[in-house]
Design brief:
Layout (H helix, E strand, L loop, with lengths): L1 H26 L11 E4 L10 E3 L5 E2 L5 H7 L1 H6 L1 E2 L3 H13 L7 H16 L7 E8 L8 E10 L1 H11 L3 E2 L4 E2 L1 H4 L10 H8 L10 E6 L51 H15 L1
Parallel strand pairs: 6-9
Antiparallel strand pairs: 1-2, 3-4, 5-6, 7-8
Helix pairs in contact: 2-4, 4-5, 5-6, 6-8
């Protein structure tokens, strides 16, 4: 009897183990399956120069009606979903930050591409798929106990970073006879700027206009449990929704192709030169 029970258990336990494992996997919450917020609201005083957000680890919330107009203007794709991880105060800060990048408006396609990563970082309903709070600190400016996020990792698609940079790299600043990357890429200037260097500069908290440290992690494949944010972009010579692309002045791809050069003149052959000499001799004689 004991021997029969032993054989039964040897056959049954592996099957039972597989069933339990499958059920366990199905009930483990995965960040990549259904992301949520990492922040919501502003936890610094309005008088602070750098505004920072409140940690919030929960589901996205319905659009704050006080900021709906801003969200629909700059982040229509997110607004269409009806849920966000940003309130009206954050959206007003977003609008102010966008104004600081107004030099990109000369090329609407560049600006549209650029905005997508700002919108995703600030308001996307599945932030936890690609954003990781690295530092959360107590806010020293208030009597009540509150915390602020002071550093994040942003897993951003390499394809997005490269195409956005390419669409913006030739945008001009006629008032200074420069391109925008001379200003927006820090000490590298336009000559030594690259997509990664551009984004790194925009995420450097040492820059006065950057509110907190943003570590841009470039890549198109999932890494460390995060799925890179990789929104659709357009080349600078292609406008969105039937609009024209950027001008030739700001986008070389928009310039007309140069005319085909004429064929070079046919050179004289040695035979032709000899015949010409013979003809001249005959004329002189």
């Amino acid at each position: 009897m004991a021997e029969s029970c032993g054989k039964f258990l040897q056959r049954f336990l592996p099957v039972l183990g597989c069933v339990l494992l499958i059920n366990l996997v199905n009930h483990i919450p995965l960040a990549s399956a259904e992301g949520q917020c990492i922040w919501y609201g502003v936890c610094t005083n309005k008088t602070d120069f750098k505004q920072r957000y409140c940690p919030y680890n929960g589901p996205a919330k319905p659009i704050d009606e006080g900021g709906r107009t801003i969200l629909e203007k700059y982040c229509p794709d997110i607004a269409a979903g009806g849920l966000t991880c940003c309130n009206a105060d954050q959206l007003r800060i977003l609008e102010k930050n966008i104004a600081n990048a107004g030099m990109l408006l000369r090329c609407p396609t560049c600006m549209e591409n650029f905005l997508k990563h700002i919108c995703g970082m600030t308001c996307a309903p599945d932030q936890s798929n690609f954003l990781k709070p690295v530092k959360i600190e107590p806010y020293p400016g208030g009597a009540e106990s509150r915390q602020i996020i002071t550093e994040i990792d942003y897993h951003l698609g390499a394809t997005y970073m490269n195409t956005t940079y390419t669409s913006c790299s030739q945008v001009q600043m006629p008032s200074t006879n420069q391109v925008v990357m001379d200003i927006m890429c820090g000490s590298y200037g336009s000559t030594f700027c690259t997509p990664q260097r551009w984004f790194d500069f925009m995420g450097d908290a040492e820059v006065p206009l950057v509110p907190f440290q943003i570590n841009y992690k470039s890549g198109d494949e999932p890494s460390d449990g995060f799925i890179p944010y990789n929104p659709e972009t357009h080349p600078c010579n292609v406008g969105s929704k039937g609009q024209p692309g950027c001008s030739c002045f700001d986008c070389a791809a928009s310039c007309p192709a140069p005319p085909t050069p004429p064929p070079p003149p046919r050179p004289f052959s040695i035979h032709g030169a000899i015949r010409l000499q013979m003809s001249s001799t005959q004329i002189m004689s």
